[in-house]
Amino acid sequence: MITYVKGLLTTVEESSVVIETGGIGYEILCANPYHFQEDLNKEVRVHTYHYIREDSQNLYGFKKKEDKQLFSQLLNVSGIGPKGALAILGTVSVPEFVSAIEQEDDKYLTKFPGVGKKTARQMILDLKGKLVVWLPDEQNEDTIFYQEDLTSKEKRARMDDAIEALKALGYTDKEVKMVRAELEKGKQGSVDDYVRQGLQLLMKT
């Protein structure tokens, strides 16, 4: 099992990143590859899940260990595969998802791509009570923006990367333009912050 990959981030694409280490380039599939845009051409460590099947082997990557653990838990739910698990992780933070599970909010869960009412109920049945250990600490970490003094140029650059990430997920120029207007009214943050906030806004439309 490949637990993580540490090396030079050489490429950020629509669905994956490439990390070079020891002369080998590892393609790692991610929920939101543009979360790593700020680290392009820098050394990074990505938590990975090595997904093995008879006809294929894929590496799935995550910035946070908790995201990897949730991905692993989601794969144990009937009806959820790697693609569906990534779609969920690309839309909400761990504490938001845990809260929905604990509150048995199947209406909220069915907003995720490919999740119907039956799958939502299955997730609640399989996961309720198993994820609460992450809720307190993760909630504090994910809901507070980084307190940085960004210049207008730096904020604009991060916002641009976040908008590109949303487009890569299939949202139209019109949709992301509306979201950007809302994000610019809010607090400053990292690319990851902006992407998560943007996805939350898009889910409400």
UniProtKB/TrEMBL annotation:
<dbReference type="GO" id="GO:0000400">
    <property type="term" value="F:four-way junction DNA binding"/>
</dbReference>
<protein>
    <recommendedName>
        <fullName>Holliday junction branch migration complex subunit RuvA</fullName>
    </recommendedName>
</protein>
<keyword id="KW-0963">Cytoplasm</keyword>
<dbReference type="Pfam" id="PF01330">
    <property type="entry name" value="RuvA_N"/>
</dbReference>
<dbReference type="InterPro" id="IPR012340">
    <property type="entry name" value="NA-bd_OB-fold"/>
</dbReference>
<dbReference type="GO" id="GO:0005737">
    <property type="term" value="C:cytoplasm"/>
</dbReference>
<keyword id="KW-0238">DNA-binding</keyword>
<dbReference type="GO" id="GO:0005524">
    <property type="term" value="F:ATP binding"/>
</dbReference>
<dbReference type="InterPro" id="IPR000085">
    <property type="entry name" value="RuvA"/>
</dbReference>
<comment type="similarity">
    <text>Belongs to the RuvA family.</text>
</comment>
<feature type="domain" description="Helix-hairpin-helix DNA-binding motif class 1">
    <location>
        <begin position="72"/>
        <end position="91"/>
    </location>
</feature>
<dbReference type="GO" id="GO:0016787">
    <property type="term" value="F:hydrolase activity"/>
</dbReference>
<dbReference type="InterPro" id="IPR036267">
    <property type="entry name" value="RuvA_C_sf"/>
</dbReference>
<dbReference type="GO" id="GO:0009378">
    <property type="term" value="F:four-way junction helicase activity"/>
</dbReference>
<keyword id="KW-0378">Hydrolase</keyword>
<dbReference type="Pfam" id="PF14520">
    <property type="entry name" value="HHH_5"/>
</dbReference>
<keyword id="KW-0233">DNA recombination</keyword>
<dbReference type="GO" id="GO:0006281">
    <property type="term" value="P:DNA repair"/>
</dbReference>
<comment type="function">
    <text>The RuvA-RuvB-RuvC complex processes Holliday junction (HJ) DNA during genetic recombination and DNA repair, while the RuvA-RuvB complex plays an important role in the rescue of blocked DNA replication forks via replication fork reversal (RFR). RuvA specifically binds to HJ cruciform DNA, conferring on it an open structure. The RuvB hexamer acts as an ATP-dependent pump, pulling dsDNA into and through the RuvAB complex. HJ branch migration allows RuvC to scan DNA until it finds its consensus sequence, where it cleaves and resolves the cruciform DNA.</text>
</comment>
<dbReference type="InterPro" id="IPR011114">
    <property type="entry name" value="RuvA_C"/>
</dbReference>
<keyword id="KW-0227">DNA damage</keyword>
<comment type="subunit">
    <text>Homotetramer. Forms an RuvA(8)-RuvB(12)-Holliday junction (HJ) complex. HJ DNA is sandwiched between 2 RuvA tetramers; dsDNA enters through RuvA and exits via RuvB. An RuvB hexamer assembles on each DNA strand where it exits the tetramer. Each RuvB hexamer is contacted by two RuvA subunits (via domain III) on 2 adjacent RuvB subunits; this complex drives branch migration. In the full resolvosome a probable DNA-RuvA(4)-RuvB(12)-RuvC(2) complex forms which resolves the HJ.</text>
</comment>
<keyword id="KW-0234">DNA repair</keyword>
<dbReference type="GO" id="GO:0009379">
    <property type="term" value="C:Holliday junction helicase complex"/>
</dbReference>
<feature type="region of interest" description="Domain III">
    <location>
        <begin position="155"/>
        <end position="205"/>
    </location>
</feature>
<dbReference type="InterPro" id="IPR003583">
    <property type="entry name" value="Hlx-hairpin-Hlx_DNA-bd_motif"/>
</dbReference>
<dbReference type="InterPro" id="IPR013849">
    <property type="entry name" value="DNA_helicase_Holl-junc_RuvA_I"/>
</dbReference>
<dbReference type="GO" id="GO:0048476">
    <property type="term" value="C:Holliday junction resolvase complex"/>
</dbReference>
<dbReference type="InterPro" id="IPR010994">
    <property type="entry name" value="RuvA_2-like"/>
</dbReference>
<dbReference type="GO" id="GO:0006310">
    <property type="term" value="P:DNA recombination"/>
</dbReference>
<feature type="domain" description="Helix-hairpin-helix DNA-binding motif class 1">
    <location>
        <begin position="107"/>
        <end position="126"/>
    </location>
</feature>
<dbReference type="Pfam" id="PF07499">
    <property type="entry name" value="RuvA_C"/>
</dbReference>
